[in-house]
Amino acid sequence: MKTAVQQARANSRSGEKTFQSFVAILLTVGGLLMVLPFAWMILSSFKTEGEVTQIPPTIWPQHFTLDNFKILFDSMAFGTYLTNTLVIVLASFFGLFLNAMAGYGFAKFKFKGRGFLFYLVLATMMIPGQVTMIPVYLILNQMGLTNTMMGIVLPGLVGAFAIFLFRQFMSDIPEELLEATRLDGAGEFRTFLQIVLPISTPILAVQAILTFIGGWNSFLWPLIIANDEKLYTLSVGLSLLKGQNESQFALQMAGSTFMVLPIMIIFIVFQKYIIENYTISGIK
């Protein structure tokens, strides 16, 4: 009888291992199929124009060259676009700090109208950004901020979604810890910097990734608010590149690689914080 039971368990374990192996192979193949276009794009950015368009196509460059990237920065003003994009990203990180402060205020401070204000913030999430672009443009035009970098970065400094996430995370910080810090003589701002922010590292990392991606991919609003090409971002510059150089595929691959590669690197470096945040959320 024991032999039959052991045999059944062995068959069950064997079946589980077979299924796991099948799933692993399936996921590996799917991952390779997903990565292949990105790998081909990155490698094609180092090819000559003739090699990119040759049939059959090659994966690894036969003649490795950086000319495509040199053209982007020497002839296509990608250096200016990069500077503008980095300014927007840095301003977005300052906005991330403001969002964290707002979330902390809603989570730990009791004041009249707190609930109403928080629900009002959440209500703005139901309004598409395209609906508010015209009113925001008119307000900035009255303030004389159109066609300026300030006009580009100002509307995106704070966001309801980020405030909501920070508020939900910081609500679980023990009040006793904050009270002990205050009893030691720390002010509210110091408590926020030295206690609340270090505890909120997982949600800060997740929001930092989302903030970087949003700032790096800024396209529609800079295109609307800026009339001067010197204020364009990388996304707008890439769109101009595709429109002006439709037949230069190697150059387009270089521009696309320059846009995508930093986001991939940032995600790979900080993905452990995303997993940690999901784990903490699941425990809660």
UniProtKB/TrEMBL annotation:
Domain of life: Bacteria
Family matches, as Gene3D superfamilies: MetI-like
InterPro entries per UniProt: MetI-like, MetI-like_sf
Any Gene Ontology CC annotation: plasma membrane
Membrane-spanning ranges: 21-43, 81-104, 116-140, 152-170, 249-270
Pfam families linked: BPD_transp_1
PANTHER family in the record: ABC TRANSPORTER PERMEASE PROTEIN MG189-RELATED (PTHR43744:SF12), ABC TRANSPORTER PERMEASE PROTEIN MG189-RELATED-RELATED (PTHR43744)
Family according to the record: Belongs to the binding-protein-dependent transport system permease family.
Protein name: Sugar ABC transporter permease
Organism: Paenibacillus kribbensis
